[in-house]
Amino acid sequence: MPCQSVLVLDFGGQYNQLIARRVRECNVYCEVKPYTLSLEEIRAFDPIGIIFTGGPNSVYDPSSPQVDPGIFQLGIPILGICYGCQLMAHHLGGRVVAATDDTAREYGKTETYFDTSCKLFQGLPEQGITWMSHGDYMEKVPEGFILAARSDACPNVAIADETRGFYGVQYHPEVNHTQHGTDMIRNFLYAVCGARGEWTMGDYKNTAIAAIREKVGSGRVLLALSGGVDSSVAAALLAEAVGKQLTCVFVDHGLLRLNEGDEVEAAFRPWDINFVRVDAETRFLLKLAGVTEPEHKRKIIGEEFIRVFEEEAKKIGAVDFLAQGTIYPDVIESGAGNAAVIKSHHNVGGLPDYVDFKEIIEPLRMLFKDEVRQLGRELGLPEYLVSRQPFPGPGLAIRVIGDLTKEKLDTLREADAIFRQEIADAGEDKNINQYFAVLTNTRSVGVMGDGRTYDYTLALRAVTTSDFMTADWARIPYDVLDKISVRIVNEVPGINRIVYDITSKPPATIEWE
Ligand code: XMP
């Protein structure tokens, strides 16, 4: 391990990734590992501190996740969060009971009072809001521990044994609702574990480049570049590390936004790599002609993408490494970190079967999305690539409702570019997580100048969300909407009506198809 690291032991809680992100935000490297990690493996990992995550269980459930009690003898500081706190108390001689009445069971925002002489809370206010979500509570605190925080309903909100460096909190310091939550985690890392703050993307860049050079040697690397954040940053990192040994294949399926293909090419031209841009617009549009059903569109695009990539790979010949832009949340979600597998992840669906290579290389495998963006900046990628909003693999094919034609795609591209430009000019892009235009399949009557029109209706979609699983429609100011509407109808032929989508997800989805 190149720098100090913290071990986040995963007991199946919903905020586990968030804990790891908070630790990394404090410039300390950490990894999420399943709670089943053996003492030997923990010793080998050599953490400066361990964090027990929350989890849905009660410590008294026969099947509840447990730890080897030897973990408390390792001399390593431990912070237990929620279930993790109860587990620690349970193992060290405290008593955890199921709260039978509503007074001890706490959910949501809770006024909390802290003992700021405790290292965990040093330098922070004596009172503040914490985010609680626990059914069990600690009736008896283990020997050697003091009470370090309380709420009106519960005397044991936080416990501390400063001699051994053991801390437990009933609330979730990792969620934004907890005031100064990240500061508490920072206190644990720096004041208790002795962190030196070595984890920065500038340093990581150099370490990663050295590691890639060592692994790849004089071998050849192939990467499918989509122009999205992950594959772009992976490409830039590999380019910096192995230069001409890297070939990037950028399949332009003709379903990208205005000028996007040229932007991707321009961003990678300065690097001394083999950059292949495949103009596959015609063959994609031919395959998609007359297809109206969204899932059918997706399937055709996915299959055609693999075919094009396979053809290009054949031209290149055998390579040693196939690079993928897999990032840490994909790794955690596919079960490497969590005991319960949420979904198995295939970053580039099916590709490895089609390409002649020896090994997969995933240079972003240990990074969170915000770290990937930061690394991209360190590598000198332009901001429009690094801070790019999510864009679906099937591209504009699922934003032109119904059957696709090049004319409709061009119309949508023009309107979408105006929408995005006006949102950015109004400074609204900072408040909105994803925004785009949709060409509906509906035409309506309008009047322009002295004439009647019968043109398409364009829908604007803009959402605020943190996880893209749920979303709310963005409250764009009326005057901004007005300007967008006037500009699009005046400047884009074929559109005579604009509507704004005011549905949240659920019940709608973010995309229309
Ligand atoms: P929905 O429409 O399901 O979208 O609310 C959630 C997020 O996923 C993106 N999305 C896709 N991304 N291939 C992708 O790579 C797809 O087929 C696809 N469909 C939706 C969408 O843009 C949003 O960010």
Distinct small molecules:
xanthosine-5'-monophosphate
Number of helices: 15
Largest sheet: 9 strands, mixed
At CATH level 3, the topology of the largest domain is Rossmann fold
Classify the helix fraction into a percent range.
25-40%
By CATH, the architecture of the largest domain is named 3-Layer(aba) Sandwich
Radius of gyration: 26 Å
SS-based class: alpha/beta
> What is the 3D shape?
globular
- The low-confidence runs, each spanning 5 or more residues with pLDDT under 50, are 337-350
The CATH superfamily of the largest domain is Class I glutamine amidotransferase (GATase) domain
In terms of DSSP E residues, the strand content is 15-25%
Distance between the termini: 45 Å
Q: Estimate the mean pLDDT confidence.
A: 92
Total number of distinct structural domains: 3
- Order of strands, widest sheet: 2-1-3-4-11-10-9-6-7
How many strand elements?
A: 20
Would you state the CATH class of the largest domain? Alpha Beta
